[in-house]
Amino acid sequence: MRVAIPRNSRISRLFALRWSGQLTDGIFQSGLASFILFSPERQSNALAAATAFAIVLLPYSIVGPFVGTILDRFSRQRILFYCNLMRAVIASLVALLIWQGATGILMVTLVLAAFGVNRLILAGLSAALPLLVAKDEKIRERLVAINATAVTGGTVFVVLGGGVGIGVRNLMVEMSANHADSIVILLASAGFFITALLALFLGKDELGPERHEIKKASFFAGIDEMRDGFRRLKDCRDAMLGIIATGIHRSGLTALTLMALILQRNSFNLSSEPNAGLAGFALAAVIAGVGIALGAIVAPFGVARFGRHRWIRWMLIASAIAPLFLALEQSEPILLFTGFLTGACGQGVKVTNDALVQSQIIDQYRGRVFAVYDVMVNSAIVTGALVAALLLPKDGAGGLLPLVVCFSYLLVAIALLRPKYFHSSATS
Out of 46-50, 85-89, 101-105, which region has the weakest mean confidence (pLDDT)? Predict the structure, then answer.
């Protein structure tokens, strides 16, 4: 698949806005991870890591039902500008608290707000892209490829941002850990401010909503739209099973990510040397990011050859291979192999299922179904984190968790996604 970066200045500006924000988000997350999970003053464990994951993802599930209503009532360009500006201010406040070593309710509230705002930003970028593409007849037919490039590129830039944040932190070895983490967060604050300025290179109204799209419904109409999305999925078993498969895969991937984090923090490296653990985890994240990018590139060829349903089923089965090896031996090379293969296959499941849901659900209900999709997958991710917290020992070593992940992938692929239930004409 050729990387679809169109020769259109407006779309290129939207790509720059998206990717700069996600690069900065990676820097922000690396600073938070270093402070919360890799600080020498704190003994990290699976429960602490699971709590951190839940804090990051909770806003996505809470804000999700209301996102569509907000984006259909106000200028999306203004939303992107003010939300990134808000993130810059929040990151500055977080940096101040980290400098002081604070970990109280104010810190949790600010982090929740930062990630909640990010959910609105990403949804606004996704909603704006088709509108810009529709205005250019030469690239309209490439919407799917352009959208896949935007999403996969964003994932890669988050990973790169994490690497930048860790690299900057490692330059400040003479500073205390809290002060070094604080400076990384300040760097993220500057990045969010620059991203906000990039939004000004797009017109106030060109990202929508258009006049005929503006809804006058109440703010809480999002709850009704979520209910409509669930009803539509009940009538389309095909799309529902694909979403369940995606959620189960992301749940297992989250559990394995927590295992990697604890192994690097407490097993592969001395707990008294958290910087070494942070560097090891960063390497694992980069390898997984390469796998994710490769999975998105290979997926169109696999779908063209075997069809969406078989490709999703086979990618889920292939995802079970690496956790089986990890269950037998917890070593750094096998951990890297697990991250790469599971990330690649998981992205194949995700991008293929996105296209499947888009094709199965009519335009009138598509936004509502994708809102349900987001909430279901994010809830599955939080569940995966909690399961990992229950099953992982303090040092992260042990074969039980990867065996559970392996079994869950195989069970869904063989039982739920069997051709009898999961095929192109499946209905409730």
Answer: 46-50
Distances from the Cα of 208 to the Cαs of 7, 11, 133, 231, 267, in angstroms?
Answer: 21, 14, 12, 27, 50
368, 370, 374: which is closest to 69 by C-alpha? 368
DSSP state of 382: H
Q: Encode pLDDT of 91-124 as tens digits.
A: 999 999 999 888 777 887 888 888 888 878 887 8
Tokens of 385: 């984190």
Per residue in 392-417, pLDDT (tens digit) is 888 888 899 999 999 999 999 999 99
Phi-psi region of 398 (alpha: psi -120 to 50; beta: other; left: phi over 0): left
| Topology (CATH level 3) of domain 1-219 | Growth Hormone; Chain: A; (1.20.1250)
Listed residue (281, 249, 251) closest to 263, CA to CA: 281
Measured CA to CA, the distance from residue 93 to residue 185 in angstroms comes to 9
End-to-end CA distance of the chain: 34
Average per-residue pLDDT for the chain = 83
Sequence ranges of the domains in the chain: 1-219, 225-428
List, as own/partner pairs, every contact residues 193-197 make where C-beta atoms lie below 8 angstroms and the sequence separation is at least 24, other chains included.
193/84, 193/85, 193/88, 194/20, 194/24, 195/17, 195/20, 195/21, 195/24, 195/84, 196/80, 196/81, 196/82, 196/84, 196/85, 196/88
- Relative orientation angle of helices 46-71 and 105-134, to the nearest 10 degrees: 40
Residue 115 CA to residue 28 CA, distance in Å, equals 10
Do 1-219 and 225-428 show the same overall fold?
yes
Reduced to 3 states, what is the DSSP secondary structure of residue 68? helix
Which residue bears the tokens 């739209």? 225
| Span 254-312, pLDDT tens digits | 999 889 988 888 888 876 677 778 788 888 888 988 898 899 889 888 988 888 899 99
What CATH number was assigned to the domain covering residues 225-428?
1.20.1250.20
Is-cis flag, bond preceding 209, omega within 30?
A: yes
356 pLDDT higher than 90: no
Cα separation, 128 vs 213, whole angstroms: 13
Max avg pLDDT among 47-56, 321-330, 417-426: 321-330
The model's pLDDT over 125-165, given as tens digits with 9 standing for 90+, comes to 877 777 776 665 555 556 656 767 787 788 889 888 988 99
